[in-house]
Design brief:
The complex is a heterodimer of chains A (879) and B (302). Chain A is 7% helix and 58% strand. Chain A has 879 residues and is mainly beta. Among the domains of chain A are: 83 residues, Phage tail protein beta-alpha-beta fold (3-Layer(bab) Sandwich), CATH 3.55.50; 95 residues, Carboxypeptidase-like, regulatory domain (Immunoglobulin-like). Chain A has a 22-stranded antiparallel β-barrel. In chain A, strands 2, 4, 5, 6, 9 and 12 form a 6-stranded mixed β-sheet that branches. The longest helix of chain A is centred in the first third of the chain and has 14 residues. The two termini of chain A are 54 Å apart. With 302 residues, chain B is mainly β. Chain B folds into 2 domains: 94 residues, Immunoglobulin-like, CATH 2.60.40; 144 residues, Immunoglobulin-like (Sandwich), CATH 2.60.40. In chain B, 10% of the residues lie in helices and 40% in strands. The relative contact order of chain B is 0.17. Classes of the chains: A mainly beta (879), B mainly beta (302). Chains A and B meet through strand 41, strand 42, strand 47, strand 48 and strand 49 of A and helix 1, strand 1, strand 2, strand 9 and strand 10 of B.
């Protein structure tokens, strides 16, 4: 019965004749009155809401006399002298808009702009990459780094919109065409909010990103994935994604699609980090909890990025909560860390984070010792690392924001130990005549200032200035006999000072341009002072200094074109000039996305080219330099910039809100990539050939690389369960034609098959995680035969292995199962979480290296084994 | 039908990208070695093939006895014949056996075995002669690290434990020789390998690492002494049991070898057989064939 009555009432209501608002009498007399004042008086007297932009009425005035009971007629009288038209948005609301154009029919069409910011409801932080859809216009927009979006040239009216962001509830809302940007708050899918008025649901759209291979995983999702020894680590959790591995078992940089880690660009708040590792590459400098956004572009990156061939990891520090102060602290076997964040008044916020290892605090850094003869000495066993991250954000107006970021991280190794080191502390803690001292320190320091400004509805500017320093020192004093010693001090430093401006131009509903320029001053410096004493009167010295400077300029332009509602095209190009060697390179990029069905199937494809002007290489002879540090070498007349081209296609499907499946295929070729001239050469001497760049380059030759593969990822969220499955089938190969090596061979990190599975279950206060990884073993060079050669001086025979092909074999497959568990509780008004991570649960000793001895008749390899079963813990506290 | 085709194509793609396509390597590569020592009789040539890894660890196992070996020295062709009693060894015809290797001559060595053909070209360096040796023995033994337990890795200082100290006499030896005149090739193009080989073995390669018992260096970088002669100084160690033990008398072989840069690359890459094989200058095979000049003296150090 009610089902019939209610629609009937609604129909009657709609069909009923509409009377003027309130029916009260209105009376105005304005003479050269500012229009803004007149409008306020009109709204106050009539009770009608008028929406308008201040800049629309700021310079206008009105002279009008009205007496009657029609608000519309009164408003028409007030604005009749201005170039403003009225649009009724409801019974009690009018919108004032400028007259823009005439259509062909001669009827005036009023147009305006819908713009706004998308922010996290919890912290107030902007959401970069959120997807805004207005079905009525069949138009979409993606928010920029400031969370800003705009739909220009929209006919006046009220539009339903849907805002989506991975990891957040989609929000349905309504936009009016007004000039002032609106603010849209999204709540995380893992965050429950009572009293939500708007409709929310987890997004099941598959077209939220245009670029194939882009991993844009919300930080909350990353925090759920199993971390490493150092707690939540972006590098460690990204390895669960397809196409990504780490160089070592638990160490090393990211290997993306088989390329070397120096082909990745690591950005923190727009500034590059050249050595993003701590603890001999065991953990990275990127802590998950300090970041608000991480994007990893695998091969195809937009025109705004450049300088690397393989991947871009673009991370942004958190601004700090604008809502409430908070504190996070944690301790695990490797380090202790904290994060503090807080609003500073209504317009500012800050975030401060610190982390430090503490093993040196447990065993001590300095040990004064004395022996029976009264000799004194101070032994040293210091190793620690630390990093500081800080960010202050200031919003002077709604449309501008200034942020200052700082990062400093460092590893310090300080040893003075006897050679006859023993685990028996009582015996080695004594003055030693024969000892070695190692003084090593390496790290990054970064400053970044970023200013974001909405210059107009259609123009958003971002300016970034930064300084990024990577420096390392390797000093050693070795005293192996009473008459010989090695005294060496090596340092290397790379300082980038950069300035860049990015402009988002919202040209029309179908075209969003992004353009900008970059200027970077690269300064390289290295030096060594070494003295090797072989005997009382026999010394060798090596004293060298080297300074290199290179200026890099780049301009880019990119159009995000939406020719139809189903098709998006991202086309752009980057023109760069490198002063050292005077190289001018053009890197066009083209990406498209075609949505067959926004949920069921979205196709993507790309063709991108990249240029890399800096390459990381190390001396392959001497132990006295480039032992733990990296040396970046700029392009020059002798070093041609490396280039790559990548073709990729991909598909994504989200048939239901609980499942997402992606598949990507790619083919990439690179050239002029520096590869070792002698793959078998390894460090074996003291002074070596020296540190001059030309000498170092003599150890390398330009090579070619190619890689191809497919990547499949399935992400399932089933009530309490979350499952992430990844499979990669790929090949990565290289060759050096200059050495007459014309056949491609497996490159160092070639992994034909790799798959991983992470399952996480949450119930009540408990959580458990099971993670399994299986992959092909890394390539190795296996001897195929043996032969003897006679020494011309001694006449003795020596047996050698013949290894005609590099990387002709492979280590056994790598397999590991980890189990994690966590329990969270409230105590002392804080939220606590205790995590236990069982690394290598099955205690499978994976083979991570293999060597052979040609002098032994029995040809059996000697294996180097990976880490055994390790129980690890972490305690977190959050206020 | 379309679905089936898609599935099949996908499987093909998966297999083609995932299958390990490492190519099998060849076996039985021709190995040639010969050293043409300036001023000395024509050398023997050794020809063999690489042996399978399961073969016995003997040189005779891979010897090739039916190869055709031909040396062209300064335009003169010299045939080599297999030595009946020594498999894989070839000597020049008896008529040419008394001939010596002329300094600065060019040479071409051809070896053919079955369908494999190896060739090497090169130049003989000028002769080198040790002019003087100066030996300095310390008065007392000094402490040193003895046991080779220090495994210095590339990525980290992977230090061994329980290395033991001992006592050594570090012996310093200087060797002098004449610089080659420009008309004899000049020293710019030559490399020098020096060696101090005591009869008494020392137990730790770590000591060798920090001392200087041998060296390979460009001859142009060798110091010149006040006599205008080139001089190189090295240090080797002689171990003793106790501090009061007198210096042990022993034989020392001091060698000096002049070569081109190809031999120097070979010599610098042959000292770590477990990690690598030496660089070869043989086209169509592996091994080393080079013009060299060696001089050595044996002295009693006491």
């Amino acid at each position: 019965m009610f089902n019939k009555i209610i629609p009937a009432v609604l129909v009657l209501c709609c069909l009923a004749p509409r009377s003027d608002v309130f029916g009260q009498e209105l009376q105005f007399r304005f003479e050269e009155t500012p229009l803004s004042v007149a409008l306020v008086r009109f709204m106050r007297q009539s009770g009608v809401d008028v929406v308008y932009a201040q800049r629309l009425v700021r310079t206008e005035s009105t002279s009008c006399v009205y007496r009657g009971n029609s608000p519309l007629e009164a408003l028409e009288c007030i604005v009749r002298e201005a170039d403003i038209r009225i649009r009724q948005a409801g019974d009690t609301q009018f919108v004032l808009v400028p007259v823009l154009e005439n259509d062909d029919s001669g009827e005036i069409i009023y147009r305006g702009i819908i713009s706004g910011y998308v922010v996290d409801v919890e912290t107030g932080e902007s959401l970069n990459g959120a997807h805004v859809l207005i079905p009525g216009l069949r138009a979409t927009a993606i928010t920029n780094e400031a969370g800003y979006f705009a739909f220009p040239g929209v006919p006046l009216g009220r539009y339903r919109a849907r805002i989506s962001y991975i990891g957040f509830h989609s929000q349905h809302t309504t936009f009016d065409v007004i000039s002032s940007p609106v603010s849209v708050s999204l709540s995380p899918t893992t965050f429950e909010v009572d009293g939500i008025v708007v409709e929310e649901s987890a997004s099941n759209r598959a077209d939220l990103t245009v670029i194939p291979g882009l991993l844009s995983v919300p930080m909350r999702r990353l925090e759920e994935l199993p971390g490493s020894f150092g707690g939540s680590d972006v590098f460690e959790v990204l390895r669960w994604m397809p196409g990504i591995q780490r160089a070592g078992e638990a160490t090393g940089g990211l290997i993306v699609r088989g390329s070397g880690s120096d082909q990745n660009l690591y950005l923190l708040d727009g500034a590059p980090i050249y050595h993003p590792w701590h603890a001999f590459s065991l953990i990275s400098t990127f802590q998950t909890e300090t970041l608000k956004d991480v994007k990893l572009y695998r091969g195809s990156f937009p025109a705004e990025y450049g300088g690397r061939l393989s991947a871009v990891l673009d991370a942004e520090l958190r601004d700090g909560s604008r809502a409430n102060p908070g504190m996070f602290a944690s301790i695990n076997p490797l380090n202790a860390r904290f994060i503090i964040e807080s609003p500073i008044g209504p317009k500012s916020s800050f975030m401060l984070s610190g982390r430090r290892s503490y093993i040196d605090k447990l065993i001590g850094k300095k040990h004064p010792v004395q022996d029976d003869l009264g000799r004194r000495d101070t032994l040293r066993t210091g190793y620690y690392f630390y990093d500081w991250s800080a960010k202050v954000s200031f919003r002077p107006t709604t449309n501008s924001r200034l942020s200052v970021s700082y990062y400093s991280g460092r590893d310090i190794l300080d040893l003075r130990l006897p050679f006859d080191l023993s685990l028996d502390f009582s015996s080695w803690l004594r003055p030693a005549d024969l000892f070695f001292e190692v003084d090593q320190a390496w790290g990054n320091t970064l400053y970044s200032v970023r200013y974001q400004y909405l210059a107009s509805d259609r123009l958003f500017l971002t300016g970034t200035a930064y300084s990024s320093v990577y420096d390392a020192r390797e000093a050693a004093f070795i005293h192996p006999t009473r008459s010989s010693s090695v005294n060496s001090d090596y340092s290397v430093r790379l300082n980038d000072v950069g300035f860049k401006v990015d402009a988002d131009i919202f040209a029309s509903l179908s075209h969003q341009l992004r353009t900008g320029f970059v200027l970077v001053d690269h300064r390289f410096r290295s030096s060594i002072d070494a003295l090797v004493t072989y005997g009382p009167n026999l010394e060798e010295t090596l004293v060298e200094r080297e300074k290199v400077r290179a200026i890099e300029y780049a301009v880019y332009v990119q159009d995000h074109w939406r020719p139809t509602a189903d098709l998006q095209i991202l086309a752009g190009t980057r023109l760069s000039y490198f002063g050292s060697g005077r190289y001018l390179r053009l890197s066009p990029r083209f990406t498209f996305q075609y949505s067959i069905d926004p949920s069921l199937l979205v196709l993507r494809g790309s063709l991108t080219t990249q240029v890399q002007y800096l390459q990381k290489i190390r001396d392959r002879f001497s132990f006295l330099y480039d032992l733990v540090s990296s040396r970046w070498v700029p392009s020059s007349a002798d070093v041609i910039p490396s280039r790559s081209v990548q073709y990729s296609v991909g598909a994504e499907s989200r048939p239901e809100s609980w499942i997402r499946v992606t598949a990507d295929a790619y083919y990439r070729r690179g050239r002029n990539i520096l590869l070792p001239r002698d793959e078998f050469q390894s460090k074996s001497g003291l002074l070596g050939p020296g540190i001059e760049v030309s000498t170092l380059l003599g150890q390398y030759t330009p090579g070619q690389e190619r890689s191809f593969g497919i990547e499949v990822e399935a992400d399932l969220s089933l009530s309490a369960w979350k499952i992430l499955f990844a499979y990669t089938g790929s090949r990565s190969q290289s060759r050096t034609p200059d050495l007459s090596d014309h056949s491609y061979r497996a490159s160092r990190f070639d992994v034909p098959r790799s798959s991983s599975l992470v399952g996480r279950r949450v119930w009540n206060n408990w959580e458990s995680t099971l993670s399994i990884i299986w992959r092909s073993g890394h390539p190795i060079t296996v001897p195929v035969s043996r032969y003897a050669l006679r020494d011309p001086v001694s006449g003795e025979d020596t047996f050698f292995f013949n290894r005609p092909q590099i990387n002709n074999g492979r280590l056994p497959p790598y397999f590991r199962v980890d189990l994690g568990g966590g329990y969270q509780f409230q105590w002392l008004r804080a939220r606590w979480k205790v995590r236990l991570h069982l690394y290598n649960l099955l205690n499978r000793r994976n083979v991570i290296g293999r060597s052979f001895d040609p002098a032994v008749e029995d040809f059996s390899p000697k294996d180097r084994l990976g880490l055994p079963f390790l129980p690890l813990f972490e305690i977190q506290m959050e206020l | 039908m379309r679905v089936r085709t898609t599935v099949i194509l996908s499987l093909v793609l998966v297999c083609s990208t995932a299958c390990d396509t490492v190519q099998p390597s060849r076996e039985g590569i021709l190995v040639v070695e010969a050293f043409l020592d300036a001023g000395r009789p024509l050398p023997a040539v050794r020809v063999s093939r690489t042996q399978t890894l399961s073969a016995p660890l003997t040189r005779e196992e891979g010897a090739v006895s039916d190869a055709l070996v031909e040396l062209i020295l300064s335009g003169q062709t010299i045939d080599y014949k297999a030595v009946p009693d020594t498999a894989g060894l070839y000597r020049p015809d008896p008529l040419a056996a008394l001939q010596t290797v002329p300094p600065l001559a060019t040479f071409l060595l051809r070896v053919q075995s079955d369908s494999d053909r190896a060739t090497v070209t090169g130049r003989i360096p000028s002769r080198i002669t040790i002019e003087n040796v100066i030996i300095s023995v310390p008065e007392e033994a000094i402490e040193a690290i003895l046991v080779d337990t220090l495994d210095i890795g590339l990525d980290s200082l992977n230090l061994g434990l329980d290395a033991q100290e001992g006592l050594i006499y570090p012996v310093q030896v200087s060797v002098e020789w004449m610089s080659p005149s420009p008309e004899l090739g000049g020293q710019e193009e030559y490399w020098i390998e020096t060696r101090l080989d005591p009869v008494t073995d020392f137990s730790s390669s770590i000591i060798d690492f920090f001392l200087l018992p041998d060296q390979i260096l460009p001859e142009s970088t060798v110091d010149v002494d006040f006599n205008g002669m080139l001089i190189w100084t090295g240090v080797y160690a002689v171990p003793v049991e106790t501090a009061d033990q007198p210096f042990p008398e022993h034989d020392l072989k001091i060698s000096i070898l002049r070569s081109d840069r190809f031999f120097a690359r070979y010599a610098a890459s042959r000292n770590d057989p477990a990690q690598r094989e030496p660089l070869s200058n043989v086209s169509g095979g592996i091994g080393i064939v080079s013009g060299i000049s060696i001089d050595s003296v044996r002295v009693i150090v006491k």
